[in-house]
Structure formats: structure tokens, C-alpha cells
Amino acid sequence: MSVKPFDFSQLFVQQPLAQQKKFGKKLRTAYPFEKLGHYIAVNRDSTQLMDEVRSILIPELLPERTQRMGQSSFTFFRGTAELMEYDLAHQDNSPIHTVSCGDAHIGNFGFFGSPERQLLFDLNDFDEAGINPFEWDVKRLAVSTLLAGREHQFENEKLTLLVKGLGETYRKSLQDMFEKTALNRFYPVNSVENILNTIPSKEMHTKKLSKFLAKAGKRDSEQVVRKFTTTDADGQILFKENPPRTRHVKDRVTKHMAKYLVQYRQSLSPDVSLMLSQYNVTDVVRHSVGVGSFGSLCYLLLLTGTDDSHLVLQIKEALPHRQLANQLEEENVQYEQNEGKRIVDCQKILQSASDPFLGYFATEKKSFYVRQFRDMKASIELSELDWDQFDAYAKTCAWVLGIAHAQSPTAGVVLGYTGHSDKFDTAIQSWTTAYVKQVDEDFTAFKHHRL
Q: What's the pLDDT at 236?
């Protein structure tokens, strides 16, 4: 099946960097920070927008999805990217677009292994990735930080200053990146060692992170096999079931898995595709994860090599962008077939290094992306951080976000626009403080609606 490429041409900028920065500075007049920091309340029905997403999910998984989202305003925020995306589209936005994560909340950063088996820290969720105003990612990170910090009962005054500090850290990250050449910006190494140098708390290094790093380093396919599989009476290795979250199903994807794997391998580099030719399918199970994506089609695929070693891949449905929900069904089908490639392309641009098994395929009506499952992966447990650690971690996420945005050709314009003063930081702070009240209202409506 032919899959159309995601269009990055709107980001092409050929002007010298000095001109880009000068142009960005001029944009402050037409798009002042005061407008960027003013939240415009949007007349919309949050329940209707969430229902549009729920309508394309697996019905039997919706109760657990609702339960996960209802734990707190932060988990609700994590599970409703469609609401903030809709609201952001109706704000006074800057005209400067970058390749964006789309869901850069504080829980969507983590550790994973590079192709060279080096432990990295970076963005790790790209389901909503695309080309958007650069500040959308900064605002989503800021709002999530305020919500998560409030959940752990940190002082409001400290959180307000932290949110402002995220804007400052993002700006300084961009400034640091543009002290490098274009080629060196293309080769950032978000190794744990490099990232740790940006975190001032020694305790964070030695006590908290060491535990997560050890946990991440032990995660590989063989560890997954030991935890997630069992052996039947015939000696066949099978995934354990835990319905409805994890169960064996017979659907179009599992029925035609061999055909889709051929298509998937065509999206990989030749060396990885050739290596995969040594593996055969042993088992496949539907296995749902996350909060916002819980209820979408997601599978674990167990492959066994000719040497009896194993590889576990995760296959996730690439849901269409939320703004496509109101388009004709025929158009949605055409767009959705391209969504896996969109996610993979954006992830490769934004991450300092990506999983070599990251690829995609499309069925007749849906699109999927594929990656290794739990390979050297771990996330920070936010609930276990004290204030100093939380402050340092949030700013580290903002620093990494600046590195990711620096990969876009338009980043020089962003650099000139955000500048060296704290006016951008104040705008992020003001907008975030106002928008959190909107999240609270939506969360209250959500709890009332599900009763």
C-alpha cells in the first residue's frame, strides 16, 4: 500500500541565521508576548470532544480508561490531549511552526536505549506529533508540570516560579543549541551522563535516578518474555492473558500479521530488515497501555529467532489527528493510512536517537507503528520526587524540548522571537495559570458525567 509522506516543506527556511533571528525579533510586534500569555476561553463541549475520541476505541476497554483518567486532574489531562489541542487552535498563537511532539507533558519523557545500547533521556511519546506553533509543546509541558506538582501538594508559589523557569530553560536550551553548527545540532546526544550535568541536585543523581537507570538497563526482550509469557503443555511460549487489558484476539491485524510484517520491514533500514528475516512469529496478543491511548488497538508480538532468542515488538494504532474527526469518513480513511508514517517521521526528527525497530504499516482502513517493547525503557516516578528533584526534573524536560525543537529549520526564528528577556517566560506562566482552571472545570464535568 502506498503511503503519502508527511509534508515538512512548510518548514524549509533558507535565510542566514542572523536574518532568521532578526525576523523572529520583528514578529514580537505583530504577535506580542502579552497575547501569547492571554488564555482565550473557548466555547466548546468537552464531553462531545471526548466522545468523538471514545467512539473509535475498543468498547470493552472504555471503563478502565475512564477509571485511569478519573484518578486526578493530572491523569485526566494526560488522557485528553484532544481538549488542549482544540483550545490551543483557538488561541492567539505565534506564526512560527516547528516539528512538535504534540503531547509533551512531563510524563512523556523517559529513558531508553540507543542503537549503540547507550542509555538516553528524551521525549518518548509521539502519537500527537505534527507541525504546530512551537509554543504548544512548551505550554503543554508547563500545564502538566503545574498539575503534577499540585497533585503532590507542592507550594503554589514555588510551582508558579517553576512554570516561569520552564520558559527560561527552554530559551536557554535553544541558545545553547545555536552555539553549535547545524551539523552538530543534528547530532545531539541526550545521554544520561550529559543530561545529568543539567540537573543540579546531587541527591537526584545518586538516589533517585540510579534506581530508575538500573531498572531501565535490565529491560530487554528476554526480560519481557520472562515476565509476560508462559509455556503451555506442548512447550509453546504464549503471552499470559489478563482480560480485558491483555487477551488473545482474532481480528484483521492478527489474521494477516505475516503480510503486515512484510510491509513493516519495508519501512526499516536494510540492515534491520535483514536481521528480522531470522525471526518467526510465535505469538501475538492485544495489550493496552497508557492513559490517552488506552482503548486503541495495541498488540505485543513475540518473535523467535533461529537461535531460539526472542524479540518483543509493540504494535500501536496510529490514531488520526483530532481535527480530522469532523471530516468525511472517506477522507479520514485516507489520512489514517498515513498516520503511522507521520508518527515515525516526527519521532526520528525530534529524538536524539531512535529505536532501530521503529517502523510502520497500514491496513485497508487503519495505520500502525511498531517499536521494541520495554527495551532499556523506564520513566521517572514523579510521586517519589521531593521538591528540589521535581524542580530539577521539570527543567530538564524543558531543556530536552529545546533540543528537539532545534531540529526544525524554523528554530532560528524561534530563537529570535523568544529572545534573552523573561517576557516569553512570563507569557508561559500567565497562560498556564489560567489554563489550569479550564482543566479543573473539564475534570469536574468529566466526573459528573460518568456518575
A: 87
Question: Residue 354 pLDDT more than 80?
Answer: yes
> 222-226: long-range contacts at Cβ-Cβ below 8 A with a sequence spacing of 24 or more?
222/309, 222/310, 223/374, 224/312, 224/373, 224/374, 225/302, 225/310, 225/312
Asked if 328 and 342 touch (Cβ cutoff 8 Å), the reply is: no
Residue 328: predicted pLDDT: 38
Kindly tell me the sign of the dihedral angle through the C-alpha atoms of 69, 74, 78, 81: positive
CA 200 – CA 138 distance, rounded (Å): 21
> Does 145 score more than 70 pLDDT?
yes
CB atoms within 10 A of CB 327: 12
Which parts of 334-375 are beta strand (E)?
Answer: 359-362, 367-372
Residue 330 has pLDDT above 50, yes or no: no
Q: What is the pLDDT of residues 191-237, one digit of tens each?
A: 777 766 655 555 554 555 566 565 555 666 677 788 888 888 888 89
Q: In this structure, what C-alpha cell is assigned to residue 201?
A: 541536585
Bridge partners of 242, per DSSP, are 246
* Dist CA 16 CA 27 (whole Å): 17
As separate numbers, helices (DSSP H) first and strands (DSSP E) second, the chain gives 21, 12
Q: Which residue spans within 293-366 are E strands per DSSP? A: 298-305, 310-317, 359-362
Q: What is the pLDDT of residue 217?
A: 57
Q: Is the pLDDT of residue 278 over 70?
A: yes
Please list, in sequence order, all residues whose beta carbon lies within 8 angstroms of the beta carbon of residue 233, skipping any fewer than 6 positions away: none
Q: Which residues pair with 122 in a beta bridge?
A: 110
Residues 81-89: what's their mean pLDDT? 96
Q: How far is the C-alpha of 163 from the C-alpha of 422, rounded, in Å? A: 12
Geometric angle at alpha carbon 345, from 36 and 3, rounded to 5°: 120
Q: Which grid coordinates belong to 41?
A: 476561553
The C-alpha cell 506442548 sits at 234
C-alpha separations of 303 from 237, 312, 435, 448 in Å: 10, 6, 45, 45
Q: Are 440 and 73 in contact (CB under 8 A)?
A: yes
- Which tens digit of pLDDT belongs to each residue from 291-309? 878 888 999 999 999 999 9
Tell me: pLDDT of 397 over 60: yes
The C-alpha cell at 130 is: 505534527
Distance of alpha carbon 64 from alpha carbon 62, whole angstroms: 6
Radius of gyration of the chain (CA): 22
Nearest to 268 by CA among 385, 178, 356, 196: 356
96 closest CA partner among 395, 397, 418 = 418
Q: State the pairing for strand pair 367-372/359-362.
A: antiparallel
Please report which residue ranges of 152-209 form alpha helices under DSSP H: 156-177, 182-186, 192-196, 202-203
